[in-house]
């Protein structure tokens, strides 16, 4: 076991998969010599050579296209999109092309591609670098959308994503890259995609979150504990497809739920979670399911970012609303 | 200050071997094709012309769906493909069904593609992808295929096709640029038929040629008479050899024309083209000039042409029957194709559709 930050756990996962399967290729802007702008690929080009880990010209659409072509030749591409705010440049390659590969070819070809990308906010980046666009991806049939919240999960989920034979969008919250360390086993292990994790058990209310908001939710749960409210915190880990079973089992136990996302409110992952709960467990509910989200504005400039993002206080307030409904 | 634009543009000249009268005008570059190969190339062009005529008729009868006519572009399509090998990988646009067929896709599958049936997209080992709909997306994917071939040490090339309109897309430039940077074995075709649906070639670019767009990417560009099968074949062969030898990718602009509408979905070319222009291009027809050339060499007869036409018609009749007999596709099958393993939420939807389908 070693103490690792999330970025170290990600590098470790990439190293393990590059070593294990010669079809794994890692590429993107600055991922080679520079090791990535966040250093996620640090040292990998040196270890595995320029044919396995390489820089690309600065063009996200072509990075996606390159991955698709390589997949057609039996490779397992792991491209990096430098910031997920650049999603729009690579949108056709994802939503128009790789997500449809299995379907379009009548299940004769596949796109075992894992797109890694830093996302989320709270780190005072320039415009278009921070955003939570996972909702757009979750609305895209044919891709899985994975969002780890801890170093341990990041490593196990990334290894699973790379081994998965369908496209996976693997979103790494920038604020979590170096915010804390955790015991991470050496060597390989996998965490099943599409499975949520109960990060804290409780009996009065279920808080459902993912990414950095898992930590805000855990902090809120501690605050609530002081008020004798026992909150269960579920980390979705995969936002598409949803682990409906874990959510519903918890809600049936607690009878109350608050869904938290860093993204804007409209048509997001949280809305989907709320819909699943009301379709499957409405008679178990003692209160409406509420959401904690950012407002429906474009992602704000850095100077107002912290006020815009939801935090533990917002979560506590919503939980109290459903408790005292 | 030195201005180089005019100088560079003037260096791009249309490569031609066989003129519209069927005369060799470029003896030095006449490709080394056997008599049988020459006849086979003619047979394929005639066959493809018949396929186009029949596809249009079948579409009008409601027996085919989406169809983009090919007549006029036979030299660009068939002669370029004639220079490829089975192991080369084709990433076609939606007008490039003939190349898929001559690469091995059974005719009935081409018809199923037209009807929107997934069986038409299953290549069954034919080294090709189904036709691309998003203009230019095939260019960036071709780089990936070519890079994959290079990494695997294969002696094959990735070949992709777009039109003059496609050269305006970002993916077109990104594809050429990536191909140059990685020096991959790829051939990029621009079939310049002068109209992207209705928008004329000069509205796509101020550049004098589309071939010159290769220069900015640092790769070779060729402009070729796309109505001349010998020239298209020779250039493609050359580009393929360069690619296999590690000399890098090529962009090939074929100067051609589509006689028909953009697609059979309601396009009316009389809104944007004159009859005079159509007539002018039909004089340059690849079949006419190649027929004259082969007849002069004693390699082609009207009887032979008639036999190819009859064979094509018969094959098409059979292929339509086979397409008609293909089981209907089900929504449940398509749900199953979304992922290798269905997640529980999709599994629920699958069961719902299976119930609906069994009623």
Structural class of chain A, by secondary structure, is: alpha/beta
Strand content of chain B: 5-15%
- Major sheet of chain B: 5 strands, parallel
Report the structural category of chain B.
alpha/beta
* N-to-C order of helices and strands of chain B: HHHEHHHEHEEEHEHEHHHHH
User: Overall 3D geometry of chain A?
Assistant: globular
- How far apart lie the N and C ends of chain B? 78 Å
Which residues of chain A sit in consecutive blocks of at least 5 with pLDDT less than 50? Answer: none
Question: Biggest interface and its residues per chain?
Answer: A-B, 43 and 42 residues
Report what the structure shows.
The complex is a heterodimer of chains A (325) and B (359). Chain A is built from twelve helices and 14 strands. Chain A is an alpha/beta fold. Chain A has a five-stranded mixed sheet, sandwiched between helices. In chain A, strands 5-7-6-12 form a four-stranded mixed sheet. In chain A, strand 6, helix 7 and strand 7 form a beta-alpha-beta unit. The longest helix of chain A is centred in the first third of the chain and has 15 residues, at 6-20. The mean pLDDT of chain A is 97. Chain B is an alpha/beta fold. Chain B folds into two domains: 5-328, 3-Layer(aba) Sandwich (Rossmann fold); 330-359. Chain B has helices at 5-11, 35-60, 74-82, 97-103, 107-115, 137-151, 170-182, 213-217, 229-244, 275-282, 286-296, 302-324, 331-336, 344-358, and strands at 89-91, 158-163, 186-192, 195-196, 199-200, 220-225, 250-255. In chain B, strands 1-2-3-7-6 form a five-stranded parallel sheet, with helices on both faces. In chain B, strands 4-5 form a two-stranded antiparallel sheet. In chain B, helix 9 (229-244) links the parallel strand 6 (220-225) and strand 7 (250-255). In chain B, helix 3 (74-82) packs parallel to helix 4. Chain A binds chain B through residues 51, 56-57, 59, 61-62, 64-75, 77, 92-93, 96-97, 102-110, 141-142, 144, 164-166, 194, 241-242, 244-245, and chain B through 89, 118-119, 121-124, 129-130, 134, 137, 139-149, 151-152, 158, 170-171, 174-175, 177-178, 181, 334, 336-340, 343-346.
